[in-house]
Structures are given as structure tokens and as C-alpha cells.
Amino acid sequence: MTGRWVIHLPITAPDLMRARILARTAARVLIRLSARVDPGGVTVSAEDQQGVRHWVFCDRPLSQGRGRCVLPAGHASRCLSRPLWARRR
């Protein structure tokens, strides 16, 4: 046991796209409240298939210690670093 606890907060949305948008928005709001929020670990799933998770953020590490990618999972463009508000760790 690591001594850390993970919060699972069920919030419903009508489809995968809107679930990802809501999850991104919630993560960005929560990171302003606590440096312990890890937006890169955010996933969404269908209510009846909670074992099948879909990533919300790309979260790939960027070169030269520039942080992690903040774009949505599966993006086609070049990765971008986290904005300043997300670097409060």
C-alpha cells in the first residue's frame, strides 16, 4: 500500500465525445484547486463497461523536460506542453 488514495467520481454524459470534454474541463478546474490532481491519468468509460477505459489527455512526455502533452488523446498534431496552471506540482 502506497498510502495514497484515488478518487473515482462518476459523472454521466450522453456520449464519449461529451464525456471526454467534461472530463477535460473537470480536470482543468480541479488542478487549480490541488496540485495532487493528475490530469494525465483521466479516463472515461461506458457505465456498463467500466473496465474499458478511454484516455482523455495525450499526456506524452515532451523532449528536454518541457512537461507533458495537454492535447486530447489521439490528436493528429504535434504535442504541446502543459500551460503554466498545470505545472504546480
Structure in words:
Strands 1-2 form a two-stranded antiparallel ribbon. Strand 1 and strand 2 form a beta hairpin. It has one helix at residues 16-33, and strands at residues 43-46, 49-55. The protein is α+β, with helices and mostly antiparallel strands.
Q: What order do the SSEs take from the amino end to the carboxyl end, as H and E?
A: HEE
In the sheet with the most strands, the strands line up as 1-2
What global shape is seen? globular
Please provide the count of β strands: 2
The main β sheet shows up as:
2 strands, antiparallel
Number of helices, where a helix is a run of at least 4 consecutive DSSP H or I residues: 1
Helix content: 10-25%
Mean pLDDT: 84
Q: Provide the β-strand percentage band.
A: 5-15%
Ends: how far apart? Answer: 22 Å
Going by helix content, strand content and strand pairing, the class is alpha+beta
Poorly predicted runs = 84-89
Backbone CA Rg: 14 Å
What keywords describe this structure?
two-stranded antiparallel sheet; 1 helix; 89 residues; single chain; alpha+beta; 2 strands
